[in-house]
Amino acid sequence: MGVSSEILALIAKRLKKDVSKVTDEDIDVYLEGQKAGTKNNKDTEDKSTPSVVDSEKTSAAFTSAAGPFVDLEQAAAGFAKSFSPEGIGESVDVLIKGAQDLGNGMGIGRARAAEFRAMIADTVPEMTKLGISQEDTLKIMKDIPKELGVNTTLTKETIVEIGSAAQISGKNAGDLADKFKGVGFDLSDVGDKMAEVANYAKSIGVNVTAVAGKVVENIGKLNTLNFEGGIKGLAKMVAQSEMLGINMDDVLRKGEELLNPESAIEFSSALQRLGVQSSALLDPLSAMDMALNDPAALQNEMVKVSQQFTRLKADGSGFEILPGAKLQLREVAKQLGMSAEELANMSIKSADLDMKMSKIRFPGFAASEEDKMLIANMAQMKDGRAMVTIAKEGGGTEEVAVEDLTAEQLEKLKEEQADQNKTAEDLARDQLNVLEEIAASIKGTGQGISMGAASTGAVQRMTNLTNELRRTVTSVVAEKVTTENVRGTVSPIASNLEEGVVQGITQGDFKAAFEIFSKLPDLLKQGAGGVATGGVDALKKMVEGVNFAILDQYKDVSGVKPGESNISKTLVDFLSQGGEGLSSLFGLNKGTETSQNNTVNLNATIDIKGESSNMTKDSYRTMFESVIGEISNDPAVMSKIKDGIEKVSNSSGMAK
Description:
Layout: H1 5-15, H2 24-35, H3 55-63, H4 72-82, H5 85-106, H6 113-129, H7 134-148, H8 156-169, H9 173-182, H10 190-203, H11 208-218, H12 231-244, H13 248-258, H14 261-273, H15 279-282, H16 284-293, H17 295-306, E1 310-312, E2 319-321, H18 326-336, H19 340-359, H20 369-378, E3 380-382, E4 385-391, E5 397-401, H21 407-418, H22 424-429, H23 434-454, H24 457-480, H25 483-506, H26 510-517, H27 520-553, H28 555-558, H29 567-585, H30 617-632, H31 635-652
Antiparallel strand pairs: 1-2, 3-4, 4-5
């Protein structure tokens, strides 16, 4: 389906594809969207792209007393939400998940998490203000080190510049970084270099996205060929190819062939036999030199050759291929390494541009070559005169002959079309309409508020500590509750139950079955004893983990590092004594004794002296054995104990 190169570039940018990969289906979707008055391919756009400010509110800014402050109410509400616990909490989650995703992409997990969280918090709001969504920003941050193959450190400024350059060129940010790095540029220079390319393309009136994208694709040629002015020389060659419909890949491919002396001699000889007039191309050494040291000049010579096959139409409306030169054009095209259609297209477009440049009477103040090229590309020939369309002061447009342009009008044209010396961020922002820019600014500012709060040291430490405590507790419990542990606890209980049931069914011995069922309390107590012991061990590990997490998060502000505090040792020692005391007290370590909820009153007094802080496990055992010894040696006390046991046995139904 035929659409202009500008439309193709727009579709490719919105779909984040190379122009060459845009399909007819993509074009159909775009055109249908235009007919419906909606944006192209809405489903493929990032859902989190800032919504455009309501057009009614925008109108109100002009018609009501609110004026330029009409958006403040909406912005204030958004800022308040951003600074609320809910807004900060959402940003905390974004930072945690984003940092983890970056770490996973680098294969380092949670390492450098603090660095990544700060980087995300600083970068996302600035990218949002340029119309680049949070999701796209995180993808850019992940793609760059992935494409470079190293876990490089990135600054906010570098990410913003590369992201902006990707918007300008329509290329993947990771691929962009890798290509520039491959030709010796620092990542911090990518934005400046792409801005230089874009500003040049704008200065001569050529499609910026097409030129920038083609420069990125061919930037590797800087390593193997010499371009005058480096990347700007490459940009000039690309710009000429876009203006004249040249496939620059064909030119570069032919240049590679000409680096071989035999191929260069054969090439020059063939052109001479075909009657081509070009002193530079008919000299093999000159052709080889251009192929290596000035590919742009080689392309320009091919353009000059193509102009030999055109003439102005009789009615003066344009150019056409000479009828008797079409066969010669085909043969020359083969030698130049391109198709006949491509050479013919280049021939007509170059002849048209040359006529404009030669016949237009440029104002004396349009001195630079870029200014003349800009006017020529904007102008259309009408009745033998070059005309440009400019906006009138009171509204509407008018056509003005180039030679009649005033200095003020020319500056206005340059300002609207060229607008040079912009940064990559400015160029990316220019791709938003005014409503999108307002919405992006409001959303980015809100993100700056919430992420600024979420990334402070105090909030980060509290968040990290909370998550580490949760992780410690769950991991310890998960470690204790294993299939083997559960199976070991349940197996003896299930086996005894099964034994009782089988005997009752097969032998009719229900008495034996009831006796086995009566063992259930003991069996359950055995299982409970194992759980209690494991619980104490788990609690010890939790305390140790909690202690480490607290000291690790606050080591920089407290001056105490993990291993330098006795908190963990004190708590673990206490739990060790308490846990073993509890197990001994309830007989959980024995597993065969039973207990009843009965009371035996003894008229005896036990006097314990000593400080509890000095008591140890051995002290408790010595004290307990001493008390039991005194009781057992007192006949009166033992008699009361015997009477109490008999009373309890009779009342509980126990056998005597």
